[in-house]
Amino acid sequence: MNPDITSYNQKLESEDEKIAILLSEEIGKHLPEAENKIWHSHPVWFLDGNPIVGYSKQKRGIRLMFWSGKSFNEEKLNVEGEKFQDASIFYNGVNEIDNDDLKRWLDKSKEIQWDYKNIVKRKGVLERLK
């Protein structure tokens, strides 16, 4: 894993750090081919330069976000915006993470992708890749 992500995780408070470590380990295990780095101040994993999944510390907890998650049709993933295809879930304790859900969502993140990599070139228009 990228050492910058390890550093990001270590700067979090105790329970948030545990959540972040578990998420980063599971994402790495299920998306071993993904590039990972700090992007817009938080950890993000990319496939072929396209952002797939990431997490960040927010007021409501640790937000796990899937850039194409709206298309996963998963009840537990909250769709916040209407313009893009992102969806997320918030965690406040490690015990809230359902590994079966997480694995299914990570599998879907490989199968269902919208082209965020070229969104600027397309003037904000998203096209489905997969």
Features:
single chain, 130 residues, alpha+beta, Aspartate Aminotransferase, domain 1, five-stranded antiparallel sheet, 3 helices, 5 strands, 29% helix, globular
Structure, explained:
This protein is an alpha+beta fold and 130 residues long. The chain has one domain: Aspartate Aminotransferase, domain 1. The chain has helices spanning 3-10, 14-30, 99-111; strands at 35-39, 42-47, 50-58, 61-66, 87-91. The chain has a 5-stranded antiparallel beta sheet with strand order 1-2-3-4-5, with helices on one face. Strand 2 (42-47) and strand 3 form a beta hairpin. The longest helix is centred in the N-terminal third of the chain and has 17 residues, at 14-30. The radius of gyration is 14 Å and the shape is globular. The two termini are 26 Å apart. The mean pLDDT is 90.
List the helices and strands and how they pair.
Elements: H1 3-10, H2 14-30, E1 35-39, E2 42-47, E3 50-58, E4 61-66, E5 87-91, H3 99-111
Antiparallel strand pairs: 1-2, 2-3, 3-4, 4-5
Helix pairs in contact: 1-2
| Secondary-structure arrangement, i.e. CATH architecture | Alpha-Beta Complex
Mean pLDDT: 90
- Supply the number of helical segments: 3
Query: Helicity, in percent?
Result: 25-40%
Net shape:
globular
Round the Cα radius of gyration to an integer and report it: 14 Å
Largest sheet: 5 strands, antiparallel
CATH class: Alpha Beta
- Uncertain regions: pLDDT < 50 for 5+ in a row? none
**Beta content:** 15-25%
Order of helices and strands: HHEEEEEH
Distance between the termini: 26 Å
CATH topology: Aspartate Aminotransferase, domain 1
Total of domains: 1
SS-based class: alpha+beta
Number of strands: 5
Main sheet: which strands, in order across?
1-2-3-4-5
